[in-house]
């Protein structure tokens, strides 16, 4: 058991997740220049199905302000802007991932990989943040989900997945996301609440989300240059959201390819889902650490609710 747990933690480092949301306020790292690694796995929730794994390598730098993709983003009246790039990979499996047969009524196998350009604008006077991203990539066998999961399961001596031949087929990913957060309450850098709204449009995910972010602990104030005297920032967070689903290629297949072995039909997609993310964040000097857990209601009529966990490790470069 200890060997399996250690390998699950270390294996992603050997490789370097749109489920992974790096644009929200409680994940602000306090610098325009940083490197952050994100890893999700349902292992942390003692399951092995649905959203089974996701990871990303995220990099921001002032030089990325020259990235031509930024010209496609809205230009709000902001006090500061962070520009970045992220390489992300996500994977999904049905409950019985060992069988070679199609698991009718369950989630199809799916994997996606994409490069994401993003910008985060902060308006300190009006106390809001606007995050935008554009993702370009591939869903299907070309995203090497089969090879990735098979290799990891062999290394940790777990059951070998057998159904990846039935996965969502290769298709192009082009996705735009915009998220808006407005501070509703701040109490002496100990607690704050933000409202949250986001829109995704594209060939991977199309949806709208509404919710709230709450943080409690020793906090930085995102909207002032005055900070707490403590060198350590440690706090808990909770992100609640209701999602209105328009399209999900990990369930329905891509918009171009129509020869998928198995997909979930449009009429069986749950158009409303609820999600809760919660966890603990520690920031000390130039190091960022996070542990998170997520729960989401079922995403298709014959499916089940899903749970996963993850961690993030970041380093600031002043």
Descriptive overview:
- By secondary structure, the protein is mainly beta.
- It contains three helices and twelve strands, in the order αβββββαββββαβββ.
- A twelve-stranded antiparallel beta barrel has the order 1-2-3-4-5-6-7-8-9-10-11-12.
- The longest helix is centred in the N-terminal third of the chain and has 14 residues.
- The termini are far apart.
Short account of what is shown:
9% of the residues lie in helices and 48% in strands. It is built from three helices and twelve strands, in the order αβββββαββββαβββ.
> What is the terminal-to-terminal distance?
40 Å
- Biggest sheet, in brief? 12 strands, antiparallel, barrel
Q: Which stretches are poorly predicted, pLDDT < 50 over at least 5 residues?
A: 1-17
Extended strand count: 12
Radius of gyration: 19 Å
Strand content: over 45%
Number of separate helices: 3
Order of helices and strands: HEEEEEHEEEEHEEE
Spatial strand order of the main sheet: 1-2-3-4-5-6-7-8-9-10-11-12
């Amino acid at each position: 058991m200890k060997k399996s747990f250690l390998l699950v933690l270390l294996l992603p480092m050997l490789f370097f997740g749109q489920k992974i949301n790096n644009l929200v306020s409680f994940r602000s790292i306090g610098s325009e220049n940083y490197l952050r690694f994100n890893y999700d796995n349902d292992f942390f929730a003692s399951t092995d199905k649905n959203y089974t794994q996701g990871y990303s390598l995220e990099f921001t730098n002032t030089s990325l302000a020259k990235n031509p993709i930024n010209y496609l983003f809205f230009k709000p009246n902001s006090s500061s802007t962070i520009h970045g790039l992220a390489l992300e990979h996500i994977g999904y499996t049905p409950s019985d991932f060992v069988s070679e047969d199609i698991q009718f009524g369950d989630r199809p196998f799916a994997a996606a990989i994409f490069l994401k350009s993003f910008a985060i604008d902060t308006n300190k006077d009006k106390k809001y943040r606007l995050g935008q991203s554009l993702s370009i990539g591939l869903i299907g066998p070309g995203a090497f989900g089969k090879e990735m999961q098979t290799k990891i399961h062999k290394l940790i001596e777990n059951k070998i997945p057998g159904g990846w031949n039935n996965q969502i087929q290769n298709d192009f990913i082009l996705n735009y996301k915009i998220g808006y957060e407005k501070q509703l309450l701040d109490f002496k850098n100990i607690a704050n609440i933000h409202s949250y709204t986001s829109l995704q449009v594209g060939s991977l995910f199309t949806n709208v989300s509404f919710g709230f972010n709450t943080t409690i602990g020793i906090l930085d104030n995102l909207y002032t240059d005055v900070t707490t005297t403590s060198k350590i920032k440690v706090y808990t967070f909770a992100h609640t959201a209701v999602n209105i689903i328009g399209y999900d290629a990990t369930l329905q297949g891509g918009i171009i390819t129509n020869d998928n072995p198995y997909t979930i039909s449009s009429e069986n997609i749950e158009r409303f889902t609820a999600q809760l993310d919660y966890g603990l964040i520690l920031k000390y000097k130039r190091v960022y650490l996070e542990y998170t857990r997520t729960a989401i209601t079922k995403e298709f009529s014959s499916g089940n609710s899903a749970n996963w966990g993850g961690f993030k490790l970041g380093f600031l470069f002043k």
